[in-house]
Amino acid sequence: MSVSVDLSGKTALVMGVANSRSLGWAIAEQLLKAGAKVGFSYQGERLRGELEKLTAGYEGTWIQQADATNEEEMTALFARVGQEFGQLDMLVHSIAFAPRTAMEGRFLDTTPEDWNTALTVSAYTLVSAARHAEPLLSPGSSIISLTYHASQQVVPKYNVMGVAKAALEAATRYLAADFGEREIRVNTISAGPMRTIAARSIPGFGGLYDKGARNAAFGRNATPEEVGKLALFLLSDLGTGVTGQTMYVDAGLSIMTVKE
Ligand code: NAP
């Protein structure tokens, strides 16, 4: 049986696409294929050219620079969403960052500065984006973000980013409760390891990726396309009734201990 999702007339903002390998782009591709109108935000002018190239073939897309930690830029971004769309059906937060210094040594040595940076960029910006989006949301609107299993179990070198992902998952539940009576949904997707720019900045990611492929129930890692399809489910009416959840798309990696 094939289910096709029609998002024509629906609007989306995707925050955090660096290039075609970004999980945010894999999600955007599903939304665009389903007929949604999609706006994109990117952190710095460095990424503008790449995003212009990616979105060139898609009618009705627009892009705007916004550092998610910058209040003025966030206000301007959501004003643009209002001007372009009038309302917002789908919000995708696909943003994370921790300074390399925080991921090289021991978790025990995490500095307050690195802690604040990692938690602000990787978790607080979801809360901020949801608050800026609030006036544009209506019953049926859906918000998602991207998390990782290091929130639940220790993954070597993930360090403060594991704490940031735990905060993101908890924030998802609190936001879901705040929006609950209006039936605005908030969920987070826990993706297995995928080769993206952000992942490459994690020390030892290559080994983690290979081990993931060996140990996952499927004997391979999940793909960005599979992340995109779960996102489509959560963002569309297929996902009504689901809120506050952390949903895994990891080819069964998190359920396994080490395979024989
Ligand atoms: P990515 O392509 O590098 O995307 C991360 C994006 O976050 C980049 O566009 C980056 O912009 C942006 N960003 C960082 N700080 C920002 C800020 N202050 N304001 C606005 N944007 C900011 O990597 P990705 O793997 O697709 O990451 C997307 C999400 O998936 C992240 O939450 C990540 O933790 C999560 N995730 C990834 C994996 C994986 O294995 N790849 C697994 C599970 C979850 P710049 O390039 O300008 O810094």
Please tell me about this protein's structure.
This protein has helices at 23-33, 48-55, 71-85, 101-104, 112-133, 160-179, 197-200, 205-215, 224-235; strands at residues 11-15, 37-42, 62-65, 90-93, 142-147, 185-191, 246-249. The chain has 260 residues and is α/β, with parallel strands linked by helices. It has one domain: NAD(P)-binding Rossmann-like Domain (Rossmann fold). Strands 3-2-1-4-5-6-7 form a seven-stranded parallel beta sheet, with helices on both faces. Helix 1 crosses helix 9. The protein is globular, with a radius of gyration of 18 Å. The N and C termini lie far apart (35 Å). Keywords: Fatty acid biosynthesis, Fatty acid metabolism, Lipid biosynthesis, Lipid metabolism, NAD, Oxidoreductase.
Helix content: 40-55%
Number of E strands: 7
Q: So how many helices?
A: 9
* CATH top level label: Alpha Beta
Shape descriptor reads globular
Strands ordered across the widest β-sheet: 3-2-1-4-5-6-7
Number of domain units:
1
β-sheet strand percentage: 5-15%
N-C termini distance: 35 Å
Q: How does the helix and strand content classify structurally?
A: alpha/beta
User: Are any ligands bound, and if so which?
Assistant: NADP nicotinamide-adenine-dinucleotide phosphate
The CATH fourth-level homologous superfamily? NAD(P)-binding Rossmann-like Domain
Organism: Deinococcus navajonensis
Protein name: Enoyl-[acyl-carrier-protein] reductase [NADH]
Catalytic activity: a 2,3-saturated acyl-[ACP] + NAD(+) = a (2E)-enoyl-[ACP] + NADH + H(+)
EC number: 1.3.1.9
